[in-house]
Design goal:
about 220 residues, 2 helices, single chain, about 15% helix, Immunoglobulin-like, about 45% strand, 2 domains, mainly beta, globular, 4-stranded antiparallel β-sheet
Length: about 220
């Protein structure tokens, strides 16, 4: 019984990898989504497709362009202090769609009068930063001279995440005016851990299937 189960899983895995390889060799099967934003706010906002974080808007082009299976896909774009931008697209095979993103300020958001500062020294610096489970930007925005994340003092949960890498988690108690630095290097996940399944196509791109959706997330 166990042997049959293992054989079935192996056969399923091989079938999936062959399907992904075939799709990677013929992008006419897939549709492309291109994102555009007018200001730095939009360009540094995080992009989610069907609930999966892919990266920040400005980087999703070239080797990191977004290719999806035909059908309906939900898009969410997020930025700290702004309302989520949401839209739904219907992807057609071999077609390219342009999504124009416009972020609107969230009037409920107010900067605290007294703050602490969190600086980031993390590789890769395009990883997403979550503060208390809310997306606030990517690492590159909070590292280097004159850059940092200003937060209210107190207990804070920090998560740094990027597709294909193990997420980094830490918690810290910040005093008023304290400066705190996060230093780490994200570790690559084993093939198959970041998505179910995950495959490196013959073109060098990483193909991931998640809940029936195929993502191409660069190499």
């Amino acid at each position: 019984m166990r042997t049959n189960c293992v054989r079935s899983l192996v056969a399923l895995g091989v079938a999936v990898l062959l399907t992904l390889a075939a799709l990677s060799g013929d992008n006419q099967v897939l549709g492309e989504i291109e994102f555009q934003g007018a200001t730095k706010v939009e360009k540094t906002s995080g992009v989610w497709i069907d609930g999966q974080y892919l990266g920040y808007l400005k980087e999703l082009k070239g080797s990191k362009k977004v290719l999806l299976l035909p059908g309906q896909h939900d898009i969410a774009v997020r930025q700290g202090g702004y309302k989520d931008f949401r839209t739904t697209v219907n992807v057609a095979p071999g077609e390219k769609q342009l999504v124009l993103v416009k972020m609107a300020k969230d009037v409920r958001f107010q900067m605290p009068e007294v703050t602490a500062e969190i600086k980031m020294s993390v590789n890769p610096d395009r990883a997403a930063v979550f503060l208390d489970d809310l997306f606030v930007g990517h690492v590159g925005e909070f590292g280097g001279a004159g850059k940092g994340l200003l937060v209210a003092p107190g207990h804070r949960k920090i998560t740094i995440s990027l597709p294909g890498y193990q997420s980094f988690h830490t918690e810290v108690d910040l005093a008023p005016n304290q400066k705190f630095e996060v230093k780490t290097e994200l570790q690559k996940q084993a093939i198959g851990a970041a998505y179910t399944p995950l495959s490196l196509g013959p073109d060098g791109k990483v193909y991931a299937q998640n809940d029936g959706h195929l993502f191409v997330i660069g190499n």
